[in-house]
């Protein structure tokens, strides 16, 4: 267990040996988070995925850096067919712990399989379309779409739940029961599946009760004959018609046929044409709604992915800057200890910002910063002055410029820099630098010497 402030390994004590922070409550929270993780793991082993997800959610809510709990929560989501939620948990885990993290392996397995990614995208689109159809009351279209979803992703619990709900809506209670049994094989205590299953059982019991009641009523209506009942046989008498009656019957039949065509067939055909037209219009509207829904869904997914990319890029950039600052400080400290003040000053000035740094970082930084710059300026001023005297003006200008940058109060360095500029023929910079000597150190001997390099 590491300190939440300075990231130092914690001991058995209730305070951090590195920064002195009180970590008693922090340790209790982490232990409770681990306990929730262990309970979630037990639930997973017994195929109680809903219960496992609840415990693992509690674990990461208590301690968001519990990457073991977050990775297992992602696996639970993946097993339940919710790949997007699984990827979200693994990406967060990877950002918290970039090295030695199983989330890397899980993410790579998905990203390195373009066909699997395409199946995931199609599953999301079709599920959202089916849900949209169901909300609009187009249950048949929703049923077709959700079956396609489950063909692509046979473990998608949300898909089975929607299919069972549609089957209950169509009074297909036995089919709904079979669908819900598939859910319970994946997640043995799924609360939605259990509730739908009870509803299906209740409706099946009601149907069986109604059926048995009808059979009983029919049996009661049937009574046996006794010796006093009289059986009357059906009459076989036929009235033989003559020829005129036959002709009349034919004419009447023709008229009835014409009437049937006019009053029944023609209106039915007109109605059929009208219904076909309405069906085409409805299909067109549904196709347009489908295209619009898919477009909106794709835009939402794109916006969500762009937001995640920007967030991850911001975190990565911030982490990279902090890591670079730590590396530069460590190198500067080692050079400081070895007596290489110039090299140490170069490293510590490379740290452009100390915002958000830990207390141990700032303690070391403040301890060596001023000393490094002061000693480096003194060393560079000496080597620069020697270079001026030997006629190596380029080296002199480079060393003395850095000396002045590290210690603006070093009058000797500033004076010799103006002398180096003057001797190299750069009269403009020589005059500017000499004026700085006169301005910063008025009345000193350096100001008097600098008068020689001011361009008249």
UniProtKB/TrEMBL annotation:
Gene3D superfamilies: Tetratricopeptide repeat domain. Keywords: Coiled coil, Membrane, TPR repeat, Transmembrane, Transmembrane helix. Residues 207-227 are annotated as: Disordered. Residues 281-315 form a coiled coil. Pfam families: TPR_11, TPR_16, TPR_8. One of its GO terms (biological process) is negative regulation of DNA-templated transcription. The chain crosses the membrane at residues 245-265. TPR repeats lie at residues 123-156, 157-190, 411-444. Residues 207-223 have a biased composition (Basic and acidic residues). This is Tetratricopeptide repeat-containing protein. It comes from Parasporobacterium paucivorans DSM 15970.
């Amino acid at each position: 267990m590491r300190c939440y402030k300075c990231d130092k390994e914690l001991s058995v004590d209730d305070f951090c040996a590195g920064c002195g922070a009180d970590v008693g409550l922090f340790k209790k929270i982490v232990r409770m988070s681990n306990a929730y993780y262990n309970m979630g793991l037990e639930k997973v082993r017994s195929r109680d995925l809903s219960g496992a997800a609840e415990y693992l959610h509690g674990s990461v809510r208590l301690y968001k850096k519990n990457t073991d709990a977050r990775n297992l929560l992602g696996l639970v989501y993946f097993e339940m067919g919710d790949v997007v939620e699984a990827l979200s948990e693994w990406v967060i885990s990877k950002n918290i712990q970039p090295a030695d993290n199983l989330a890397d392996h899980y993410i790579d397995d998905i990203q390195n399989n373009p066909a699997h990614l395409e199946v995931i995208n199609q599953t999301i689109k079709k599920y959202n379309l089916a849900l949209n159809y169901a909300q609009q009351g187009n249950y048949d279209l929703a049923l077709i779409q959700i079956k396609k979803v489950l063909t692509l992703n046979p473990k998608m619990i949300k898909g089975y739940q929607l299919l069972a709900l549609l089957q209950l809506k169509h009074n297909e209670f036995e089919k709904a029961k079979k669908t819900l049994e598939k859910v319970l094989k994946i997640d043995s205590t799924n609360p939605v599946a259990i509730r739908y299953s009870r509803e299906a059982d209740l409706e099946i019991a009601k149907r069986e009760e109604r059926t048995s009641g009808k059979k009983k009523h029919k049996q009661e209506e049937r009574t046996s004959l006794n010796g006093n009942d009289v059986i009357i046989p059906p009459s076989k008498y036929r009235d033989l018609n003559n020829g005129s009656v036959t002709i009349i019957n034919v004419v009447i039949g023709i008229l009835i046929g014409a009437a049937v065509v006019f009053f029944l067939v023609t209106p039915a055909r007109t109605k059929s044409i009208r219904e076909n037209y309405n069906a085409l219009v409805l299909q067109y509207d549904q196709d347009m709604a489908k295209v619009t829904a898919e477009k909106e869904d794709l835009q939402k997914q794109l916006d969500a992915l762009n937001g995640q990319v920007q967030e991850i890029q911001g975190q990565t950039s911030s982490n990279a800057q902090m890591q670079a600052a730590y590396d530069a400080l460590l190198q500067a400290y080692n050079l400081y200890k070895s007596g290489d003040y110039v090299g140490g000053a170069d490293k510590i000035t490379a740290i452009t910002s100390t915002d958000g740094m830990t207390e141990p970082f700032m303690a070391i930084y403040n301890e060596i910063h001023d000393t490094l710059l002061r000693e480096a300026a003194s060393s560079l001023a000496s080597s620069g002055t020697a270079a001026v005297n030997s006629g190596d003006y380029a080296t002199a200008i480079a060393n003395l410029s850095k000396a002045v940058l590290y210690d603006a109060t070093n009058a000797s360095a500033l004076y010799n820099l103006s002398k180096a500029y003057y001797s190299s023929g750069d009269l403009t910079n020589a005059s500017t630098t000499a004026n700085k000597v006169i301005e910063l150190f008025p009345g000193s001997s350096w100001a008097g010497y600098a008068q020689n390099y001011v361009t008249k």
